[in-house]
Amino acid sequence: MTSYPAPINPTQTRIGWIGTGVMGAAMASRLLSAGYSVTIYARNPSKVVHLQSQGAHLADSPADLARNSEVIFTMLGHPSDVRQIVLEGLISSVNPNCVIIDHTSSHPVLAKQIFDAAREKNCWAVDAPVSGGDIGARKGKLAIFAGGNEDVVKWLKPLFDVLGKVTFVGGPGKGQSCKIANQIVVGGNLLGLSEGLVFADKAGLDKMKFVEAIKGGAAGSKVMELFGVRMIGRDFRPGGFTEYMVKDLGMGLDVGAEQGDDVVVLPGAALSKQLFSAMVANGDGKLGTQGLITVIERINGK
C-alpha cells in the first residue's frame, strides 16, 4: 500500500488545495516551494495572488479542482464548512484513488462519515489536523495528527514531511480526537502562562527576565516558546483564531455525548473554554489565542 497507487512525485502528483487562511496559505506555499503542482480553489481569488506568483493554478470550483487532483488538502474554519465543501461537495467529483486530507480541526464523527463516503468512491480520506500555529506552518514544523488508513498515511509521508512531522494515531476520526486532546493541553498552558505573566507583572518582575528564568525548568513549554514574547509585546496577531479554540474545546466537552458515549469530565477544559469565550465576547475572537492574557488582565482590573 505504501506505493498506492504510484509513489508521490513532485513532477507527477497533482495537488489540490482548499483553504488559504493564515495556516492554509503558508502550508500551500511550502508545497509549491517543494516543487509540487498545486491547484487552489479560493472564493476570493485576489487573496491568493501571492500563491499564484509561486506557480499555483486556480480552479473555478471545488468540483473543477477535484477533477484535476490526485491528492486534495482542505484547511477550513469549522466542521460546517467541512461538511459542505468536502462531504456534500468534493466527494461527488473526485477521481478514483484520490486521497482527501482534511487539516481542519473538525469533529471525529464527521471525519468518519467522510472516510466512509470516500471509500464508496474508491478513494481514501485522512483526518490530519495540525498544531504549531503560523510559525510552525511557515517553517514546516507542524505536528500532524493523522487518522484513517495507516498505509495511506505512509504513502502520503513525502507530502507531510514538507509540512512537519506526521504521527499516525489510529483509524478514521482519531486524528480529530488527538487534536481535541491537544487543544485541551494548549488551552491549559495558555491559561497558566497568562496568569503567571499577570502575577509577575503585579509583583514588579521584569516579564522578559521572568520568562527567561523559568523556561528551562518545569514551567517551560512549547506554548511559552511560541507565545511568551508575543504576550509580553502585545502581539496578538493570529496563528489560529481564538474563536476556533472555543470551537475545539467545545467539541472536547460534548463529543462523548454526541457519540452516545459517556462524557469525559474536563473541568479545566470547561474553564479554559469560558475564558476564551470571554475573549470572543469582548470582540477579540479573531485575535490569536495568546490574547487570553487580556481576559486575565481585565479580571485583575488592568
Automatic annotation (TrEMBL):
Domain of life: Eukaryota
InterPro entries in alphabetical order: 6-PGluconate_DH-like_C_sf, 6PGD_dom2, 6PGDH_NADP-bd, HIBADH-like_NADP-bd, HIBADH-related, NAD(P)-bd_dom_sf
Keywords: NAD, Oxidoreductase
Active site positions: 179
Pfam families reported in the protein's UniProt record: NAD_binding_11 (PF14833), NAD_binding_2 (PF03446)
Location of the 6-phosphogluconate dehydrogenase NADP-binding domain: 14-170
3-hydroxyisobutyrate dehydrogenase-like NAD-binding domain: residues covered: 173-295
Spans through the membrane: none
Record-level Gene Ontology MF annotations: NAD binding; NADP binding; oxidoreductase activity, acting on the CH-OH group of donors, NAD or NADP as acceptor
PANTHER family listed in its UniProt record: 3-HYDROXYISOBUTYRATE DEHYDROGENASE-LIKE 1, MITOCHONDRIAL-RELATED, 3-HYDROXYISOBUTYRATE DEHYDROGENASE-LIKE 2, MITOCHONDRIAL-RELATED
Name recorded for this polypeptide: 3-hydroxyisobutyrate dehydrogenase-like 2, mitochondrial
Native source organism of the sequence: Nicotiana tabacum (Common tobacco)
Gene: LOC107819482
